[in-house]
Amino acid sequence: MEADHPHTTALFLTGCGGDQNGYPRGTVALSRRHGRTLATAVEAAQATRQTAIRGPLVPALARVQVDYQTPPTRAQLTAYLAGSPSAHFQDYELTKPHAERLLRQIVREGKLRSSYDYPVQTIRFGDRLVLVALAGEVVVDYALRLKRELSGPAVWISGYNNDVFAYIPSRRLLEEGGYEPRRSMNYFTTLVQPGPFAPSIEDRIVAKVHELLGRVPKLNDGQTDGAAPNRAR
Fold first, then answer.
1. Where are the domains of the chain?
2. What is the pLDDT of residue 89?
């Protein structure tokens, strides 16, 4: 984009692609091909009729507690590391190195974390556009659900904002299992994850988005219209 359009600064803001992959992939050449595809899509959008964004910029930021599933105990981890078949955590899909990290944390701190203080942000661009900025590697179900539920202006759902500490699964993915909701938790070592998130994570995050947008009055070209706040439904 910058080579084809002098004096332009290209900025990339990803959507909810935690469980999405470009295909095919694996080489620099393929990466460049996908980049060219994105650039072509931007250029195609520039060739269409543009929508002016007017009015104030209205950001809102809050945090919501999202729970983990019940973590393993010290006794369970000790038995698992000793090779006891009864201590195999099928739902967690634990690796031994991660089980060792969890056990060290219990010995050092007396417990494993039971929840995470998750940041949720919304930004209104006048009355034409709403950006929902979610933290972590958010899966596509969040974008699909929020676009269905939020009425009013155009809605843009983005992941990887403010904090990246884990994949953010939906209830559907937690029920299906697999890498993002389960196995990936073995590989986040800066913040030791005790296990998968509880299924309530999706509803709690979505509810916080609705709450933040419900606090912001409906705007019309920079002026309030005197009506009640435009609460997202």
1. 28-67+114-224, 74-109
2. 67
